[in-house]
Design a protein that fits this description.
Helix content: 25-40%
CATH superfamily: P-loop containing nucleotide triphosphate hydrolases
CATH architecture: 3-Layer(aba) Sandwich
Strand order of the largest sheet: 1-3-4-2-5-6-7
Largest sheet: 7 strands, mixed
Distance between the termini: 24 Å
Structural class: alpha/beta
Number of domains: 1
Order of helices and strands: HEEHEEHEHEHEH
Number of strands: 7
Strand content: 15-25%
CATH class: Alpha Beta
Radius of gyration: 16 Å
Shape: globular
Length: 210
């Protein structure tokens, strides 16, 4: 379930993402946030859902965002400057990261403060493993975003690893869930960083915010 983009929109987005995209800074406290001088979009998701791999696929780079098999590797808000017109923000993974309660509380405080107080935040992309569908921790974040009146959109990852019947069942459940959340974008995207599925369409969706 996704919208259709024109050839012009896809081409312009490809050119944008083919250009410069540089790591700016890692933010561990709200006082470190860069000036809100451009639109920004954030990527959130359970630990090891494939955020770093997706960001690398979108930008055509192998190591812009670090990937790891160890859950919870991203422990701060990582800002990337896309062509001087848009910030891409890699948020800390949630779910089953092996961290202390104190550190998790600090992460929660950082995320809630960021979501509620960032006027230039245009969209949060919640990445959901296409093999497993929504989890309780995903629903928790969705409710948090509803309450903060921050728009968000679901991105299914690793869709090349699911059989057609399995992912259709997951998508049906997802569609029903989205109708219950007021800040949710009604359409989601199916992606695979490995097989380049949905990458061009997601670039176009992101480019619309610049």
């Amino acid at each position: 379930m996704s919208e259709t983009f024109t050839k012009k929109e896809l081409d312009e987005a490809r050119k944008l993402f083919k250009g410069s995209c540089d790591f700016v800074l890692g933010v561990a406290g709200l006082e470190q946030l860069p000036p809100a001088d451009r639109s920004e979009v954030a990527f959130a998701g359970r630990s090891n859902v494939g955020k770093s791999s997706l960001i690398n696929a979108l930008t055509g780079r192998n190591s812009l965002a670090r990937t790891s098999n160890t859950p919870g590797r991203t422990q701060q808000l990582n800002f990337f400057d896309l062509g001087g017109v848009l910030y891409l923000v890699d948020m800390p993974g949630y779910g089953y990261a092996k961290v202390s309660k104190t550190q998790r509380a600090e992460w929660d405080k950082l995320i809630k403060g960021y979501l509620r107080g960032r006027p230039n935040l245009r969209m949060v992309y919640i990445l959901v493993d296409g093999r497993h569908g929504l989890k309780e921790s995903d629903e928790h974040l969705m409710t948090m975003l509803d309450e903060a009146a921050v728009s968000y959109r679901i991105i299914l990852t690793k869709c090349d690893k699911s059989k057609k019947a399995e992912i259709e069942k997951i998508e049906s459940t997802l569609e029903a869930s989205l109708k219950k959340h007021v800040a949710a974008y009604p359409e989601f995207l199916r992606t695979s960083a490995l097989k380049d599925i949905g990458i061009a369409e997601m670039r176009a969706a992101l480019a619309a915010f610049k």
